[in-house]
Specification:
about 400 residues; alpha+beta; Rossmann fold; 2 domains; five-stranded antiparallel beta sheet
Length: about 400
């Protein structure tokens, strides 16, 4: 196993045509991957996550910066000499070779003794539950089986580092969920340092020890899945994690209060500096109650009222869409997570409360609303101790 370090990495790509202008794909990315860690790189299309992975693999050349694997600088080292194994989105299996031959191919190129090759192949096949498939051709396999074979080709090499480039994106939703579980089990058994690229926030949250979020070639936040969900640094990160997306409401801080545009919502805040701001709150931290009923006894602050516009009944839960600011002719939409039995009918007026300590405040630039920095928020409620659970 190994550590991986990236320092101030930049990648420029030269465009086509007579102008030949270069575009900076990565902009000074630095990160460290610990021995045995599973780090997920995530971000929207074109953010540079696959380019970063390919630089670590040696398939792309860095314009600036340094990459080290286990303390050795590998910028000028050929891919085959970096002791890494990469699994691609396309399975990259040889169609004329059986599963056994596909698994053994790289080992034969390295001229390993045949008994060692067969031992490694059978060990990987047992680990991935594909032993009954060893004599089949790739065309006789399902998508999930092909992906297992692709992972098996990486495993038999026993590399220091695994690199995965969106390996599950070609599978349907049910199979992706099954393969996520298999990947978790595989990493627990092997403990190999792994860097995994995806655009799927569910994959990132369920697989990663840590997640690195990239945007427009820059690393905007890195941390555990829970820390990114609970304390996003920017509205961009806040929106990237969670289904539905975090509610983000533009407004201003004035005199110790956040006031949404059109006065649709107000909230006391410990942030003292006045200025443009964005309030963020997750759907599970929005509490609704009928406007015509008694106010519930609660420490959660009431921030406004609105109209219950749409209910999405998802079975185990419901998503309630609230229109705020109706009296002012314009409305903000707030989404709350609830159980269907607790909700009034569509069209009813509701009070809106936010769970104390569970909302977020970001600075706001009207020209770049997703780039705001995290401002102070109320202290998070203390988590219960083991004895108190």
């Amino acid at each position: 196993m190994a550590t991986v370090s990236v320092r101030s990495l930049c990648v420029d790509k030269i465009g086509h045509g007579s102008a030949g202008r270069s575009t900076r794909i990565l902009r000074g990315v630095s990160l460290d991957v610990a021995d045995g860690e599973l780090l997920v790189l995530i971000g929207p299309s074109g953010c540079g996550k696959s380019t970063l992975l390919r630089c670590i693999a040696g398939l792309e050349t860095a314009s600036e910066g340094e990459i080290t694997i286990n303390g050795r600088v590998v910028n000028q080292v050929e891919p085959r000499d970096r002791d890494i194994a990469m699994v691609f989105q396309s399975y990259a299996l040889y169609p004329h070779m059986s599963v056994r031959e596909n698994l053994a191919f790289a080992l034969r190129l390295r001229r390993l003794p045949e008994p060692d090759i067969q031992s490694r192949v059978e060990e990987a096949a047992e680990l991935l539950a594909i032993t009954p498939l060893l004599s089949r051709l790739p065309r006789e396999l399902s998508g999930g089986q092909r992906q297992r074979v692709a992972m098996g080709r990486a495993i038999v090499r026993r590399p220091q580092v695994f690199l995965f480039d969106e390996p599950l994106s070609n599978l349907d939703a049910a199979l992706r969920q099954q393969m996520r579980v298999e990947l978790l089990r595989l990493h627990r058994k092997l403990g190999t340092t792994t860097i995994y690229v995806t655009h799927d926030q569910v994959e990132a949250m369920t697989l990663a020890h840590r997640i690195a979020v990239l945007r427009q070639g820059e690393l905007v936040q890195i941390g555990s899945p829970r820390s990114l969900y609970d304390t996003p640094r920017t509205p961009f990160v806040a929106r990237f994690f969670g289904t539905p997306e975090m509610n983000l409401i533009p407004g201003q801080v004035r005199g110790g209060r956040f006031i949404a545009k059109d006065d649709a919502l107000q909230l006391s805040t410990p942030t003292t500096a006045d200025g443009e701001a964005t309030l963020g709150v997750r759907a599970e931290d929005v509490v609704l109650s009928p406007a015509d009923g008694p106010a519930p006894a609660s420490d959660d602050p009431e921030v406004g009222s609105g109209l219950l516009d749409v209910i999405e009944d998802l079975g185990s839960e419901a998503l309630a869409h609230i229109k705020l600011g109706q009296a002012h002719g314009k409305a903000h939409t707030l989404i709350a997570r609830a159980t269907i039995a607790t909700l009034p009918k569509v069209g009813a007026s509701v009070r809106v409360r936010l769970v104390a300590g569970r909302w977020h405040l970001f600075s706001r630039d009207a020209a770049h609303p997703e780039d705001g920095a995290r401002l102070s928020t109320p202290p998070q409620p203390a988590m219960p101790t083991e004895a108190g659970r």
